[in-house]
Amino acid sequence: MRNEIIIYSIFLLIYVNAIDDRKSNKKKSWRDKDIRDMNDADLELLLDQWEENDEPLEPDELPEHLRPSPKIDLSKLDMSNPDNVLKVTKKGKSVMMFVDTNEDLSVEEAETIMKIWQTSLQNNHIIAERYPIDQKRSVFLFHEGSQAVDAKNFFLEQPELSHVTLEGQTYFRDPKKQNERMAKLNKQASKRNIKKDNSNKQEEL
């Protein structure tokens, strides 16, 4: 009988200690753990706490897709000035421009003149990254989109330039080529309008 009491007491002591250990483990917060003992869930909680304590970033420090769009008062915009409209609407946004040199330049000359143009822009505080996509064609990326307008006007003054394409609009340095392109676009628009009118008349019949 005495032996049974001793054995029972030992099991009871082990059971009580096990319960105490479980309670102490439950009460132990992930914050009290050594970082080496943390699991993935603990690390996620730690990261969330860091982000909550971080001060919010300034709008210009946020990624472009998270920046609030600037408020534009269209009533104060001179809509007859496309350059001014583009400057205002593209402020703080990334803009790409395709730049083509004249065909009579060699590949080496075209590459050299592109580098000179990029340096000239930088000297005028217009920052652009350049990515060659063809032997005589490069993409200029402007992280401050409003600067693309001044860059376009700079390019159009260069004798080695053939044309630039900005926001879907192509600008030729040669006024004759520019007029030819505009005439071609107007002709295409007229054809589309005639086709649309004929289609509407057939529907009415």
UniProtKB/TrEMBL annotation:
Residues 1-18 form the signal peptide. The keyword Plastid does not apply. Keywords: Chaperone, Endoplasmic reticulum, Signal, Wnt signaling pathway. Residues 175-205 are annotated as: Disordered. One of its GO terms (cellular component) is endoplasmic reticulum. Its main location: endoplasmic reticulum. Residues 195-205 have a biased composition (Basic and acidic residues). GO terms for biological process: protein folding; Wnt signaling pathway. Gene3D superfamilies: 3.30.70.260, 6.10.250.640. It comes from the Eukaryota. It is found in: Endoplasmic reticulum. Pfam families: Mesd. Belongs to the MESD family. PANTHER family: LRP CHAPERONE MESD, MESODERM DEVELOPMENT CANDIDATE 2. This is LDLR chaperone boca. The gene is LOC117232916.
